[in-house]
Amino acid sequence: MEARGQAGRSALRLPDAIGPHRVVPFTRRFRLIATAALLLTAAVFGQTAAAAQGASQPQAQQGQTAGNFNSSSKASTSGAQSKPPDFSTEPYVLLFTKARVAFQGDGSYTSEITLRAKVQSAAGVQQLGVINAPYASATSKMEVMYVKVTKPDGTVVTTPTENVLEMPAPITQQAPFYSDLKVQQVAVKGLAVGDTIEYQFREKSIKPIDPGQFWYDINFDKDAVALDQEAEVSVPQGQYVKTQSPSLQPTLQQKDGRTIYTWKTAHLEGTGAGKDATPDTPQQPLMQISTFHNWGEVGAWFSGLTMPQAVPTPDVRAKALELTREAKTDQEKIEALYDFVSTKYRYIGIDFGIGRYQPHTASEVLANDYGDCKDKHTLLAALLAAVGIKAYPALISTGTDVDPEIPSPAQFDHVITAVPQGQGYLFLDTTPEVAPFGYLIAALRDKKTLVIPGQGTATLVQTPGDPPFQSMFAFQSDGTGIEPASSRPKASALPK
Predict the structure, then answer these.
(1) Distance between CA 98 and CA 220 in Å, rounded?
(2) Which strands form 424-428's sheet, in the order they lie side by side?
(3) What is the pTM of this model?
(4) Of 203, 147, 412, the residue nearest 299 (C-alpha)
(5) Residue 473 falls within a domain, yes or no?
(6) Distance of CA 139 to the CA centre of its chain
């Protein structure tokens, strides 16, 4: 299971991260999603927004779970023998996984991850022998509650606390990325084939990213057989939240002054028989939750973080005039400033606390000669403003397309630039550094992006589906056998 909120997800991926565990900020999206394939990582941030909602609803029937994973077991119905699922070829089977997140009225939260798994092969020992709990150290604290192994004869081996080490998140070592992301890493004591491993991690926020709001999403694990998967999110009773989970509806309960949402399911397809359980294309999260009422609120929040940083200072104005001295039209000015920011400023992510979302000032980026996606947008927007051209931040996802029904910053992992032109926008991405003017990589084309104007309401806009130039040619050749030179096959290139 993977979970993310204002801190981000847990598993590495470039482009940009948004939030601590998507610990994903807008820094060319590295989504900290699952440092270990089965680690349930709950990343939650933000604060609560007051608004009344919801009477209690009756709790629905508990989600279905699988039966015995032992291939030798049998089930019978009305005297007839039916063959149960055979999970014996799986490296491990997840017996139980649960993510529990509780938000408080001040926006603080506590998340708890519990996992129990049966190890069935040496590959399972290798995958579960070292477990990781990622977190953002500037905004939260992580505690390993326990890690224990139960042997087939019932003997319990508990991993001592000295086996828990705090490590930098791998992304900070593998990419040009500086961050407060940490990992509590545990070397599991005494794990062997046939054992059952169980562990629990607890994370507590110490500094909300956005007082008054929170957002969060969860994906259940589909990389392994999971017999019982559960996620529970609770908020103060009367707290406004919007949930989106089209394929699995939650049960709702009012208890002790809190509203509790619970999702339960199972996943009975694994990889042991050679099947790849992981989908080829990114999937929408199973569940998303947000306290934002609409996309205008999301845009207003991000605008408050970014617009003041893009105000052109004297040094930025001087550079803009220098770079556009020979330009005769606005289009030439835009191209000159894009080329400067795109090619002269290398990508380096700096991601601490609110820095996951808030860029440095344009003046700082200009002096640093580097920046992440939101920094490079900010410098470009400030340079354009200095010569009288408007440019807006546009939030976009390099993975799944945005679900317009759930306004949440967690859906984005990258920032590009939107320049108003006519009735639409010219979209520019300075992050790739070598991309031609107006070019968007394939992962950004034909995608919904949240354009955030300096004045007015943020709206979702579709990016172009094609590059801004002809990118393919079809070659056609006609001819047979060996012919005199004058009649040899001729080839022609036909633009597509």
Answers:
(1) 10
(2) 424-428, 414-421, 392-396, 448-451, 459-462
(3) 0.78
(4) 412
(5) no
(6) 18
- CA separation for the pair 9, 35 (Å, rounded): 9
Nearest-angstrom CA–CA distance, 188 and 199 = 10
- Residues 116-168 have pLDDT tens digits of 999 999 999 999 999 999 998 888 999 999 999 999 999 999 999 999 999 88
- DSSP line for 367-416: HHTEE-HHHHHHHHHHHHHHTT---EEEEE-SSSPP-TTS--GGG--EEE
Q: Are 182 and 205 in contact (CB under 8 A)?
A: no
Give yes or no: residues 322 and 192 share one domain: no
- CB neighbours of 160 closer than 8 A, spacing ≥ 6? 189
Domain end residue (candidates: 237, 269, 291): 291
| Alpha-carbon span 426 to 422, nearest angstrom | 9
Q: How far is CA 478 from CA 266, 485, 487, 489, in A?
A: 57, 14, 11, 5
Residues found in the chain: 496
Query: Which is more confidently placed, 445 or 352?
Result: 445
275 and 374 belong to one structural domain: no
| Residue ranges making up the domain that contains 54 | 2-291
- Going edge to edge, which strands form the sheet with 109-119? 156-158, 140-150, 196-205, 109-119, 92-103, 225-236, 258-267, 251-255
**Which of 243, 274, 291 is where one domain is finished?**
291
pLDDT in tens, 272-323: 555 555 555 667 788 899 999 999 999 999 999 999 999 999 999 999 999 9
Determine the Cα–Cα distance for residues 139 and 96; give it in Å rounded to an integer.
29
Question: How do 370-371 and 346-347 pair as beta strands?
Answer: parallel
CATH code: domain of residue 273: 2.60.40.3140
Other Cβ atoms closer than 10 A to 140: 28
Residues 6+ apart with CB under 8 A from 120: 87, 88, 90, 91, 92, 93, 193, 194
Task: Name which of 25, 414, 58, 472 is nearest 260 in CA terms.
Answer: 58
Q: How many domains does the chain have?
A: 2
Q: Which residue has the tokens 């200095």?
A: 386
Whether 309 is covered by a domain: the verdict is: yes
Q: Helix, strand, or coil here: 22?
A: coil
